[in-house]
Amino acid sequence: MKAIRRTTLALTAAALLAAPLAALAQDIKPRLIRFGYGLNEQSNQGRATRLFAEQVEKLSAGKMRVRAVGAAALGPDTQMQQALIGGAQEMMVGSTATLVGITKEMALWDTPFLINNVREADALLDGPVGQKVMDKLQEKGLVGLVYWENGFRNLTNSKRPVTKAEDFDGIKLRVMQNPVFLETFKSLGANAVPLPFSELFSALETKTVDGQENPYNTILSSKFYEVQKYLSVTNHVYSPWIVLASKKWWDGLSADEKKVLLTAAKASRDFERKDTREEGAKALADLKAKGMQVNELSTAESARMRDKLTKINASVAANVGMDLWNEAQAELKKMRGAK
Ligand code: KDG
Fold first, then answer.
1. For the residues 247-267, what does the mean pLDDT come to?
2. Distance CA 143, CA 242 (A)
3. DSSP code of 86?
4. In this structure, are residues 134 and 117 in contact, taking their beta carbons and an 8 Å threshold?
5. How do residues 36-73 score in pLDDT, each as one tens digit?
6. Which tens digits make up the pLDDT trace of 70-99?
7. Residues 26/83, Cβ–Cβ less than 8 Å
8. I need a labelling partner for 40 at 20 to 30 A (CA). Which of 24, 53, 105, 275 fits?
9. Complete DSSP assignment for 229-255
10. Residue from 49, 148, 150, 217 whose mutation best tests the ligand 1 pocket (most atoms within 8 A of CB)
11. How far apart are CA 245 and CA 174, in angstroms?
12. Is the pLDDT of residue 207 over 90?
């Protein structure tokens, strides 16, 4: 009997000792954040995600750790967005264009030729209009932290140089899964085919599609030059990326943890824009060196392309709401007035 009592006492003591150690271990174990993105690790998106991860670890003194998962290993943008809404994944960066099915106001950023240069892009995205669009995500279970730069989009294809609007005719052109991009390229005469980014390289390689449109950085980092001969400089739209968090997860964070993430996100935004612009400045020469045949649309042909697309503006304005549309136009007008 005494032996049983001694054993019971020993086991109780061990359990009492173990509890605080387990709690301590729980305290020491860093909060893990799964951060998914669609481009590869060598891309501007991959480099900025690594910078974000470093900043989070540093600012939290190791209490928070980001596990960056690239190349759409956690799924395409749309799948990751749903994982964040459901709370199965904590963070991601992806295109604003793939968010329009969740938050229609994001379509503002798809408007062809809305933004003329990066000065306008930064001011509009980081100003009241960009914040208003970002705030609309919260009611859908997402928290927007910052915008990164995907960049001005240009056209590549394997059939012919596109020197005028008519050259789009008959080109099977992959577009992002987004109604404005679909309408834009259909109205230019292309056969627009929506596909997730993760399927794009193989679709180009197998000639399932003839062409695509993306910033120089992506054309370079995704090696599209291996399967695309022609690069036509159109700069037809400025594309942002957006860093997102799951609202379910975000609402459970402490004020300090949120401060760490917002500070790191702003640092990653400033790094990403600088890094993307530096890489973009020499990407055209790199693409030529890799054998792409590059042509620039003439001013007249670029103007014709713009004219063909003005009807798109009306449908975007109606879709995002006239107040938001007019506020964006007023901000741009003010910027252009004050050279
Ligand atoms: O995850 C890939 C997305 O970031 C996407 O925006 C890349 O611009 C892109 C495209 O063409 O799909």
1. 98
2. 10
3. H
4. no
5. 999 999 999 999 999 999 999 999 999 999 999 999 99
6. 999 999 999 999 999 999 999 999 999 999
7. no
8. 105
9. -EEEE----EEEEEEEEEHHHHTTS-H
10. 150
11. 28
12. yes
Report the amino acid identity of residue 134. M
pTM for this entry = 0.91
Question: What one-character-per-residue DSSP string does 90-136 give?
Answer: -EEEEESGGGTTT-GGGGGGGSTT---SHHHHHHHHHSHHHHHHHHT
State the residue for tokens 């969740």: 102
Rounded to an integer, what distance in angstroms lies between the CA atom of residue 295 and that of residue 297? 7
**What contacts 96, CB < 8 A, 6 or more positions away?**
106, 109, 110, 147, 239, 240, 241, 242
Give the residue from 103, 47, 49 showing the smallest Cα distance to 217. 47
Residue with tokens 């209490």: 63
Residue ranges lining ligand 1, Cβ < 6 Å:
38-39, 77, 94-95, 150, 176, 197, 214, 239, 241
- Residue 223 phi, psi (nearest 5): 55, 35
